[in-house]
Amino acid sequence: MNFPLVRHRRLRQSAGIRSMVRETVLNVQDLVQPIFVTYGTNIKNEISSMPGVYHFSLDTLKNEVDNIASLGIPAVLLFGIPETKDSMGSSGFAEDGIVQEATRLIKEWYPELLVIADTCLCEFTDHGHCGMVHTFERDGHIHGDVLNDESLELLVQTAVSQAKAGADIIAPSNMMDGFVQAIRGGLDEAGFQNIPIMSYSVKYASAFYGPFREAADSAPQFGDRKTYQMDPANAREALREAESDVLEGADMLMVKPALAYLDIMRMIKDQFDLPLVAYNVSGEYSMVKAAAQQGWINEKAIVQEMLTGMKRAGADIIITYFAKDVAGWINEK
Ligand code: PBG
């Protein structure tokens, strides 16, 4: 008998065969493009730590959304930079809040394009935390507790105002306990029984959000988010977080960040039957961009390899600042 009998290379010998046996394929329909919207006119300001990502005012937004829609990307995720901030984050749930205004416009321009609203308060609070804060001074420093149940009421108001403006999907990212149940109840009561909740179920307290906090101007003014976001060292706790969201009525589960948490994604996918979302976060984007600008890596190849890895790990949907690029590459083929 000839040796070797088994030749793995038979299925790798041509592009045709490789594509025939490929297990994981990225599709444009898998992608969600995040967008940062702000007040003012004629604004298209690049975020310095995220080359190629911009703040758009409502008048320059049209062009960007035209581009996203023409690429066939099915959904955008909106983040807002408000004019004013206060302790309650009231511009997050104002009827004329920036996210609400942008949502109405996008739905008018493209009724079919899905608008996902990030439901959180950190972009709208003056202290930069994701909920209401009780502050106190100790040893000359300001400390604060993020109040869970009091924050839920504000988050429900935020979600309902986003749905009223036309958001198709509510994506709560605040990591308060009970947020899915509270928001589900609030949406149902307001007549939005059919608006799905894409829960940021498993969200780690991650340094990979650094560039986003510049982009969204949402860095906490004291302390950190470790009392509400998860410890990066924990995996079993992710199952508990996801399970409570499932019981509370979540329609989709998210793992965030993506790259350093592919094991978590696989675990959640194997355990639960809901669609799984990966959030390829700002720091993951910035690292690739920085290396690409130096000419150290092949950006196009690296990005597709990373996103394929997320899908292979179980992601059905990928939120990524690379969505437009990836859609363009897929459409080219
Ligand atoms: C709001 C929110 C954050 C991100 C998405 N929603 C920031 C945070 O929790 O500090 C991060 C997204 C990214 O880094 O791309 N809570």
Automatic annotation (TrEMBL):
The keyword DNA repair does not apply. One of its GO terms (molecular function) is porphobilinogen synthase activity. Its cofactor is Zn(2+). Homooctamer. It catalyses: 2 5-aminolevulinate = porphobilinogen + 2 H2O + H(+). Keywords: Heme biosynthesis, Lyase, Magnesium, Metal-binding, Porphyrin biosynthesis, Zinc. InterPro entries: ALAD, ALAD_AS, Aldolase_TIM. Pathway: Porphyrin-containing compound metabolism; protoporphyrin-IX biosynthesis; coproporphyrinogen-III from 5-aminolevulinate: step 1/4. Zn(2+) binds at residues 120, 122, 130. Belongs to the ALAD family. This is Delta-aminolevulinic acid dehydratase. GO terms for biological process: protoporphyrinogen IX biosynthetic process. Its EC number is 4.2.1.24. Mg(2+) binds at residue 241. GO terms for cellular component: cytosol. Catalyzes an early step in the biosynthesis of tetrapyrroles. Binds two molecules of 5-aminolevulinate per subunit, each at a distinct site, and catalyzes their condensation to form porphobilinogen. The active site is at 203 (schiff-base intermediate with substrate), 256 (schiff-base intermediate with substrate). 5-aminolevulinate 1 binds at residues 213, 225. NCBIfam families: PRK09283.1. The lineage of its organism: Bacteria, Bacillati, Bacillota, Bacilli, Bacillales. 5-aminolevulinate 2 binds at residues 282, 321. It comes from Paenibacillus crassostreae. It is an enzyme of class 4 (lyase).
